[in-house]
Fold this protein.
Amino acid sequence: MATAILEQFINGAMMGSIYVLMALGMVLIYGVMHVLNFAHGVLFMVGGYLTHLFFFSWTGSYPLAILGSMVALAAIGIVLERLVFRALRDNLRMQIVSSLGLILIIQNGVVQIWGPHALQMRPTTVETLVKFGQLSFTLQHFVIMGVVAAAVAALYLFLTHTRLGTAMRATSQAPEAAVVVGIDPNRVYTLTFMIACALAGLGGALLGPLFIIFPQMGDAPMLKALSAIVIGGMGSVPGAIVGGLGIGIVESLSTLVIPTDYRDTITFGVLILMLLIRPWGIFGVRVRGED
Amino acid sequence: MKLSLSTIVTIVILAFGALAPFIFGGQPYILYVLTLALCYTIPAIGVNILYGYTGLVSLGHMGFAGVGAYTTALLMKDVGLPFVPSLFGGMFAAGFLGFLVGIPCLRLRSHYFIIVTLAVGMILFTLFNNLDGLTGGAEGLPGIPRPGNIEIGSFVLDFRSLTGFYVLTFIIAALTFGLQYILVRSDFGRSLSSLRQDESLAAARGVNVFGHKLAAFVLSTAIAGVGGAMKVLFLRAAAPLSFDMNESINLMMMLILGGAGYLVGPVIGAITFIALPEFLRVAAEMRLIFFGFVLLILARFAPRGICGAAEVAYRKLANKEANVVRYT
Amino acid sequence: MRKLLLTTALAAAFMAPAAHADEETVTIGVVTAQTGPLAAPGKFQMNGFNLAVDEINGNGGFQIGDTTYKLELKVYDTRCNAAEGASAMQRLATVDQVPIVLGELCSPVAAAEAPIAQDFQVPLVVTVPTASSLTEQGNPYFFRVNANSGQLNEALAAFVETIDSEPLSFIAWNNDTGRGGANGMRELLPEDFEFGYIGFFNVGEVDFANHITNIRNEDSKAIMLLMDEEPGALAIRQIRDAGLDAKLIGTLAMGSNRFLDRLNAEYLNGMVQYSSFPPNAPMERIKNFSDTYKEKYGEESHGFAAQSYDGVFVAVEAMKAAGTTTDGAAIRDALAEISVDGVIGTISFDEKGQASPPVYITEWCEDGSRKIIAPEDLAADCGAG
C-alpha cells in the first residue's frame, strides 16, 4: 500500500502541476479583468498542437518547440483580448457566450486543420524511464514538475519585483486607484492575457508528448483548473497553486478507495460543497456582493 | 392598437405550427425535423425564463432535461404508466431536483452559480452513464414506447405515427409557450426582469430575490424535463450523450441565437439551430465553426440575437425611434 | 413511388422485345460517422461498403429478372449522435426512398434509427454496433451482421477460464464498449472467479496511472483492456513503462498491424485479444478480401470493413431473393431467410435478426505477427492472425 501511495502521489503531483499552470492563467485573467475564460482549455490544446508543429517542421528541438508554442500563444492572447474580451468587460453573460464561441471555433478549427486523429511526439524525456524499486516513471514526469516549479517562481518574482507585475496586482486589487496612479489598464489587460495564454501553451507543450495530442485534451484540465481556482479562491494566486496541486494529488490518491467512474462526481461534488460552505475559497478574500 | 412585431411573429409561428401536418403531410422528413426542433424548443423556453428573463446562466440544463427524460421513459417502459402521468412524473422529478439544487446554490452569485450548474450537469451525466441497471448505462435505453392512441368519436389520433407525434409535441410546446406568455406578462415575470436588470435595486424595492430566483429555476428545470422527455419519446431511445455538457451549451446557444428575453426567441433559435443545418446538411464541424463566429459577433454587436436584430429593423421600418434597451 | 412506376413502365416497355437486358441503378442508404470523435472507425466502415459496391459494379452489377442493377450509396453522417442519426434514417426512408439501409457505428444511435426502419418498412442492417439490447427489441426490420457484445464476451470468457488469469483486472472505457464489456464478463465468468480491480475512464482521458497503481496493488495476473486502438496503445505503453508484467487481454481493435505501428513487438508480445476478423488468417475468403483491401487502400484490412463489405452482399442477396429493389417489406422477409457466405463467415439471421459469425482469439508473437488460438478448428500459427 505504501508503494501505491507513493506512486499515486508522484502521478498526482505531476497532473497537479499541469492544473496549476491552467489555474494560474485563469486566476490571473479573472483577478485582473473579471473574465471567466472557459476557452482556456482549447488554448492549452493549441499549445500541444503547436509544439508538435514546431518540433517536427521547424526546430527539431523540444525546448525550442515549447518556447515557440508559448510565444505563439502569447500572440493569440493579445488578439483575443483586443478583439473579443476588451469590449465585453463587466459584461459577465456575454463573456461566457464569447468564450463558448471561441471553444467552438478553435476546437473544430483544429479538427479541420490537423484532422480528428491524435498526434504523437516522443522526445527523449518521454522515452527515458526513471526507476525506484519496483516503481518506474518517465523522465517527463519530473521535467513537468520542475518546469512548472520554475514557471511559478518566475511568475512570483515578476508579480512582486517588477513594475509591470506591480501594476498587474494593483489593477486587480483596485482598478480605479490604479488608473489614478497612472497605470494604463488596457496595457495591463493585454499583458495579463499574454501571460495566461503562454502558461496554457506551456501546459499543453508539457503534457502533450507524455500522452497524445488531440482536440479534446484541454477539456479536463480546464474543468479541473476551474475547480482549483474556486477551491483556492477566485482571484488568489497562491490559492490557484494550492488548489491545482491539491486537486491533482487528492484525485489521484482517491482512486485507491473510490471507483474511478465516480471520480468526477466526487471532484464536482466537493466543488459544489466548497462553494456552499466557503464560496470565497481557501485563500480568497470575501468581497461584498461577489459571493 | 398597432400589433407589435412579437405578436405578429407569434401568431404566424403558431399558425404555421398548427398547419404544418397539412402542409407537409406528404413530406415526413420535414415534419420529422420540425418535431425535433420542437423537442428543443421546450427546454429552450425553460432556459429563456431562467436566462432571458431572470438573467441566470445555466450550463447544465440538459442534465435536468435528462432527469425528466429518463424518469418519463422508465415510468412508461418499466412501470407501464400511461403517457400523461409519466410526463408529469418526469416534469416533477426534474423540477424537484431543480428545487433541491436551487435552494443552496441560488444564493451564489454571478460566476459561482454558473460553475455550480456546470458541475451539476456533469454529475448528472455521469449518473446517466454509470447507473447501468437503471438507465441502461452508456449503451443507451432502447425500446421506449410512444403514447397510445386517442379516439375522439371516429377520429383516431395515433401518436405512434409521425404526424400524431408532431401534433402531440406541438400541443405541449404551445402549452409551454403559453405558460411563458402568461408568466412574462404577470407581476411575477416583471419582478424576474427587474432582477436581471439590477438585483440590488430590485431587492431594495421589495422583490424577494431568492424566492423569485428559486421559482424561476424550478419552473425552468421542470420545463427542461418535459422537453427531455419529449425528445426521448420521439427518438424512442435514450442515450447519456443526448444530455451532456455540449448539449447544455448548445441549448444556451440556441436561445442566444434566437434572442434571449423574447417570447419567440427560443422557437426561432431552435429552428435556426436544429432545422436549418439539418435541411442544408452542412458538415457539423463547419456548422460549429460558423456558429462560433456567430456567437462572437452576437456577443459584441447584437446581444439580443435574431429577434433583437429584427426588432431594430422593424422599428426603423415603422419609422419609430430605434429605442432598444441594450441587453447585457 | 414515381420512380417505381417509371421503373415498371420502362421494364414493361423493354420486356416486349424480350431478352434485351435493361440496366438500372439501385441506391442503398448508409448511415455512419464521418466526422466527430468516431470518424476514424467510420472510415473503415465506409471502405468496406465502397469495396463491395466497386466489386459488384465492376462485375457488371447484379441481376433480378431481366434487369441488371448497378449499386449506388447514399451516405449520411450521423456523428454518433442519436438525434442526427434518426434524422438521417428518416431522410433515407422518406426523401431518398431507399429500399434498405446499412451502417452505423454507435449502439445508442442504432437504437434511435431502428424504430424508424420499422415505421417505414425499410430494413436496417448494422455492421458494427455491439450492444446486445439492440436485437432484443422485437423489431423485425433490424438486422445485425457482426457479433454482439454477448457473443464476443462468451468467446472471451471461455478463453479466460482456460488460462491462469486470476485475479483479473479491467481498464475499460466508460462508454457502451467498455461498460458493456466489463459488465458482460462479470456475468459470464463463474461465480468463484476472482476479479481484481475494475476501473473505468472517460473517453478523452489519457492518463492511466491511477488504474495501474490499483492493478499493481491487487497483484493481478491479467488485465483486460476494453477500449479502442488509441487509448489501448497508450494504456499498454503506460502499463509496461510502469513495470507491470501482467498478461494483457484486449479487444478486436488491438489485433492489427496498425496497432503494432503505434507500439512495438516488445510491448505486445504475449497479449491476446478477441477478434471478429483476423486479417491474415489462412482462409481463402479472408486472404482475398485482405489483398483487395490492401491494394485499394494501401493499409491492412480491418474487421469493420469486412463486416460492412459483407453487409452490402447481404443486402444484394436479399434483394435478389425478394425479386425487388423497392419493396422494403419483401426484402425484410428475404433477409430473415437468407444465408450468405461472407468474408467473416456464413451470415444468416436468427429470429431476433442477429447473425452468428465466428469469434476468434488471437495472440501476439515475439516477432510482431499474430497467431490464432481459438476457435480450435481454425487455429493457426504465427503470421496468421
User: Anything to note?
Assistant: The first helix of chain B runs from residue 5 to 23. Strands of chain B lie at 141-142, 150-152, 155-157, 237-238. Residues 324-328 of chain B have pLDDT under 50 and may be disordered.
